[in-house]
Amino acid sequence: MTGGQDARDEALASQYEAYPYPERDPRDEAKRLLIGSPSHLREIDYWVFGATRSRSLPLRVLIAGCGTGDAAIMLGTHLARAGRAGEIVALDRSEKALSIARARAEVRGLENIRFMQGSLSDPDQLGLGAFDYIDCCGVLHHLPDPDAALAGLVRVLAPGGGMGLMVYAPYGRTGVYMLQDALARLAPASEAPGERLDVARRVMRHLPATAWLRANGNFGDHLSGGDAGLYDLLLNPRDRAYDVPALFGLLDRAGLEATCLMEPARYDPALLLPDPRLRARVEGLDLRSRAALAEELAGNMATHVVYVVRRGEEAGRADPFAPDAVPVMREIPGSELVKQMTPDNRLRFAFGTLEVLLPLPGQARGLLPLIDGVRTVRELGEAMESRGVSAKRFAGLWREVFTTLERVNRVLLRAPE
């Protein structure tokens, strides 16, 4: 890891050899594919490349800190299913974690992933060449020098390429750092990982009802995720969090700019402030201030996921209202989204532990099931016209539906052939 090893970094290396994270069983690959952000292929096509990069172009990917392989397996599967050319280099310094990721890829028969043991300290010195897309998810906040690590990744980013990053956020991790401090006293990082884990389990069995972690609903996956989940949450020897201003500071120093905070609507404080006078004040804020305000108001953001490109290299985004644009559901079919709508035509959407209701026009119930990743906007309009929706009415309907559902990462645009 970048910046050289210190005692905490050595303890971190020992942690991931003893308890590779996240805990995964390769046999489960026969049952399901884990989906998430960043690095969903449709998100990369849209949020990084603006749905303007041809699907026929090979996609060269670096997973910088692949752990047990969630991002590599998801993206490798997406590319294989779509018949798209590409190579994924999955880099991690933990051989134990890589062995699990390799086994998962073998179960799926994936041949587009190359696993490599190595450090992120100088990725440009590994002789791997340049990458169109780089995933660095859940890594930077554990490193001795996140700025140097991110700068190293920028050096191996191809012109016009982009990254998907995830870092911890402070407010949604309320209670975590208090307990980390307590465990650092009871089980310092100098002790063997197994001994520290035993202490953490004992503390959790007797944790007072007043402990803030008990009131925080963000960590079910860690607390029920076996030894690796508990260790990563409470015993990680280096764990820093970035609020929105700090995140943008990190990006600014690396010469990067955000193309999307995920999901965009999550960072809109107007959704949380129905009072018209408050909304008027929100409108006067710039985008960064609005995002910071949303984080401060919601209080439950435990991570920030962001897609970024080099400053000045943002791709022009395809026009979602052009007749030949092809909308695509990011993952959930339109017919399923319709089932999630309330009788008064609002869509339930969860931002972690916070549920919001997004108003949609009633005719979205007929439109959403037609979005199949094949029909163009023109063809969607023709289908709706056969149901009595005029061309003029469809134009307004489509604008409202796409604008709303793009902001929650549910409807995107398909990349061109």
Automatic annotation (TrEMBL):
Residues 1-11 have a biased composition (Basic and acidic residues). Residues 63-161 form the Methyltransferase type domain. GO terms for molecular function: methyltransferase activity. GO terms for biological process: methylation. Residues 1-24 are annotated as: Disordered. InterPro entries: Methyltransf_12, SAM-dependent_MTases_sf. This is Methyltransferase domain-containing protein. PANTHER family: TRANS-ACONITATE 2-METHYLTRANSFERASE, TRANS-ACONITATE 2-METHYLTRANSFERASE-RELATED. Keywords: Methyltransferase, Transferase.
